[in-house]
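Regression test case RT-17, inverse folding.

Input:
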């Protein structure tokens, strides 16, 4: 017990707890999502029934892609209710970074790739038209994680002290 008191300060203990908590929460949230997924699907079906929403018919008999090597767009219009931007031709065969201001269509573009919204034009995965793919399998293999959801844009000191200057002076 005496060694423990001499080696760890209150500040380093608080820092450890804060950092540990910061990294454990995303895992807990992901586990909660996975555990409650069947229940959420059931609730979505009930909401769709009550609101009389047409359930999307996914092509479950189409081609199954195990690894996406290339995504291509040809003469595509991206957007929800209105066109946000158009793509004459684009091939994605490597990792890429998507940077733009708010409202420029980043989410619409990613939702189009994940086949959550339909675009005007041609979308292909590994040179196969998206309409000929097993969309259920394709969506099950995709995941989009927004880094802002889990990683605050603060320094550790700001995070621990909640940006309170008086508390920061303690450290």
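Golden output:
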């Amino acid at each position: 017990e005496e060694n423990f008191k001499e080696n760890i300060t209150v500040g380093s203990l608080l820092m450890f707890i804060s950092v540990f908590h910061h990294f454990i929460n995303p895992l807990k949230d992901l586990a909660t999502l996975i555990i409650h997924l069947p229940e959420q699907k059931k609730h979505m079906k009930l909401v769709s029934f009550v609101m009389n929403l047409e359930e999307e018919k996914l092509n479950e008999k189409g081609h199954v892609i195990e690894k996406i090597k290339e995504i291509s767009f040809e003469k595509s219009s991206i957007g929800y209710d209105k066109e946000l931007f158009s793509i004459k031709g684009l091939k994605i065969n490597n990792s890429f970074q998507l940077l733009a201001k708010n409202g420029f269509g980043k989410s619409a573009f990613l939702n189009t790739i994940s086949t959550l919204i339909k675009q005007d034009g041609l979308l292909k995965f590994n040179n196969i038209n998206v309409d000929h793919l097993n969309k259920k399998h394709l969506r099950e293999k995709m995941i989009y994680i927004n880094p802002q959801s889990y990683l605050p844009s603060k320094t550790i000191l700001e995070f621990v002290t909640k940006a309170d200057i008086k508390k920061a002076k303690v450290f």
